[in-house]
Amino acid sequence: MTSAATSRVVLKSAREIELMRAAGLLVRSILDAIEKIARPGATTNEMNAVADRMIREAGATALFLGVEHPSAKNPFPASICASLNEEVVHGIPNDRPLVEGDIVSIDCGVRLKGYCGDHARTFAIGEVSPEANRLLEVTSGALDLAIREMRPGLAWSKVARRMQTYVQDAGFGVVRNYVGHGIGREMHEEPKVPNYVDPDGDFRLTPGLVVAIEPMVTAGSAATRQVGRDGWAVVTRDGSLAAHFEHTVAVTDKGVRVLTGASDKAAARDGENES
Ligand code: MG
Ligand code: MG
Q1: pLDDT band at residue 49, thresholds of 50, 70 and 90?
Q2: Whose atoms come closest to the Cα of 182: which ligand?
Q3: Which of 53, 59, 180, 190 could form a disulfide with 8 if both were Cys (CB 3.0 to 4.6 A apart)?
Q4: Is residue 5 included in any domain, yes or no?
């Protein structure tokens, strides 16, 4: 729990958390719309067009569009990341029709009225293999587990340990090269939010803290590499499948609110404190 890491954390007021809920609901509605077309024959460019239109209609901005990366020649060209099968994150949408058995991770971030929301889900395209099904179940399960474990005052490493153990006990890998993050006016704020126990960095779940929690899980080894002429997509080094689920979550003095959730009812841990 380094002071350097915690000193740059920007806590949010109740009013700011309401604004972030609005951004979270927008990005949730975008992924809901994309889920409806996530079937064989659809393309990730069509999914990106859905996101573009909904972001424009809401008067929001796409956070990923135009982002620069040291390994990439060009800024990111789309409103969503679409990462197929062995791609972990940062895939660029394209015109290749999805086929039965694919899994595709869609990540979307928006800024609405000055505040950000960040949300990702991996979709099964038609019938997928038992291994792919289990991977999706365990990755979303790790995110749900984290949200259930979180409570004000707890060290993040306690939550991360539960996630890491849960994923590894299922026989899967926890990606270490990419982690979650604080979020607010900016998409990426302090602190870093690893999905594993990181001896070099921990923080407390202080009321007002808002974090994007985003387990990235692999069916094989968790090692990743950056590929492609575009320099964006990150894939598993061994070619195994990867999945990614993400929620934007606010810590309150009663519990947590899942700002990109269907219901953001405070998940109070200690019911006796509820009035
Ligand atoms: Mg994201
Ligand atoms: Mg994120």
Answers
A1: very high
A2: 2
A3: 190
A4: no
Residue 163's CATH number: 3.90.230.10
Expressed in angstroms and rounded, the spacing between residue 272 Cα and the centre of ligand 1 is: 34
Read off the amino acid at residue 120: A
Task: From 179, 161, 174, 180, select the one nearest 222 (Cα to Cα).
Answer: 174
User: Is residue 6 in a domain?
Assistant: no
- Residue 268: how many other CB atoms lie within 10 Å: 16
Residue 107: inside a domain: yes
How far apart are the CA of 272 and the centre of ligand 2, in A?
A: 33
Report CA(127)–ligand 1 centroid distance (Å). Answer: 25
Exposed/middle/buried for residue 15 (C-beta within 10 Å: 0-12, 13-18, 19+): exposed
Q: How far is the C-alpha of 266 from the C-alpha of 192, rounded, in Å?
A: 23
Q: Which tops the pLDDT comparison, 4 or 274? A: 4
- How confident is residue 69, by pLDDT bands cut at 50, 70 and 90? confident
In angstroms, what is the span from residue 229 Cα to ligand 1's centroid?
22
Alpha carbon 228 to chain centroid, angstroms: 22
Per the structure, the count of domains in the chain is: 1
Query: Is 92's pLDDT higher than 70?
Result: yes
Tell me whether residue 4 is in a domain: no
In the structure, ligand 1 is a single-atom ion and the residues with CB under 5 Å from it are 107, 118, 120, 246
Range of 43's domain? 14-271
Q: How far is the CA of 91 from the centre of ligand 2 (A)?
A: 14
